[in-house]
Specification:
alpha+beta; PH-domain like; 3 domains; 4-stranded antiparallel beta sheet; 3-stranded antiparallel beta sheet; 9 helices; 7 strands
Length: about 325
């Protein structure tokens, strides 16, 4: 089932097939892959991300349900209060009588208050209303916003909730397949003359380095990598400079490549250094560079040939230079 689905993902993302071996003797080809613990570490990070995303979805569903129920009750209460006030409005005369009665009652209460003040030495404490905060204040903000929304807004919000949950469920197999394929589609190839690194699924990166330009090979290992038995190998060619390592195997420069998450980083380092030493001790450079150097050496001599026979002699010298370069490469 997984292989069928992964094949579909590879076709859909148009991921190229296995890379061709780099330049060198086919018999010297060594292919290295990332360690299993590297895959488990990436899968653990994926799982933590999915759990946090699901917890966020559950949290906001709970908030929306609470806000919707509270807003419905509060809206009904405010509507009932407004209707009661409208139904029990008093006339102007009744309001005047009510005001007169209120004034008399206030005068009587003031007299009583003076009499009671003499008997009491301490004033009554003043009760203050506390400010709403915390979870109740957080919910109250959304309740006030929900009360202002029209009735048709809540079905749209519920539709968005359902779409969000559906999108979450649909992305689970896709992101899992991409995370697993990112581990399976890592290629680290080394021959006696060059190396090639291919990483990525959604974004494919491939870099090829010739031993003629290779300058530095480093092994780095963090605390978590030491616990899992993993390490990173960095190879740098001429012109690489000091560039920070890429994230999750991404190549930050054409002059720098990383063997991320390998279990035998020191073995790979020793292999590259040994082949690099043999490559340089043999005195063979890059064939293309030798051809260019030979052509550059014969160009001044070709410039002294008379113009009448210049084309024929230049072609003859070029063929002779290529023959010497080929003989030197094979010898």
């Amino acid at each position: 089932m997984y292989h069928r689905y992964s094949s579909f993902v590879l076709r859909w993302l148009k991921v190229p097939p296995e890379p061709h071996p780099p330049q060198g003797d086919p018999a010297s080809l060594r292919v290295f892959r990332a360690g299993r613990n590297y895959y488990r570490l990436r899968l653990f990070a994926w799982g933590v991300t999915q759990v946090l995303a699901f917890a966020s979805i559950v949290f906001w569903v709970f908030v929306f349900v609470s806000v919707e129920e509270t807003a419905r009750i509060e809206k009904a209460r405010r509507t009932a209060t407004t209707q009661a006030v409208a139904d029990h409005k008093a006339t102007l005369a009744e309001q005047a009588d009510q005001a007169l009665v209120a004034l008399k009652a206030a005068a009587e209460s003031e007299v009583k208050a003076r009499d009671q003040a003499a008997a009491k030495s301490a004033p009554k404490p003043v009760r203050r209303r506390g400010r709403v905060g915390g979870w109740d204040g957080f919910i109250q903000v959304f309740v006030e916003l929900a009360i202002m929304l029209p009735p048709w807004a809540f079905p749209i919000i519920w539709a968005l909730k359902v779409l969000g949950l559906a999108a979450y469920l649909l992305q689970l197999p896709l992101t899992y397949a991409i995370r697993r394929l990112d581990f399976e589609m890592r290629w680290y190839m080394v021959t006696d003359r060059s190396l090639r690194i291919r990483t990525g699924v959604a974004s494919v990166q491939e870099i090829t380095m010739s031993f003629a330009n290779l300058q530095q090979v480093e092994v780095s290992q963090g605390p978590l990598q030491r616990l899992l038995g993993l390490a990173d190998l960095k190879v740098q060619s001429a012109g690489g400079g000091n560039i920070a390592p890429g994230k999750h195997g991404q190549i930050d420069s054409l002059h720098i490549g990383y063997f991320h998450g390998v279990e035998n980083a020191r073995e790979i380092r020793d292999l590259i250094q040994d082949r690099l030493r043999r490559f340089r001790d043999s005195g063979l450079g890059d064939p293309e560079e030798q051809r260019r150097a030979t052509l550059a050496a014969v160009q001044p001599a070709a410039a002294t040939v008379p113009s009448t026979d210049g084309d024929v002699l230049a072609a003859a010298r070029e063929l002779a230079a290529e023959a010497r370069a080929l003989r030197a490469a094979l010898g």
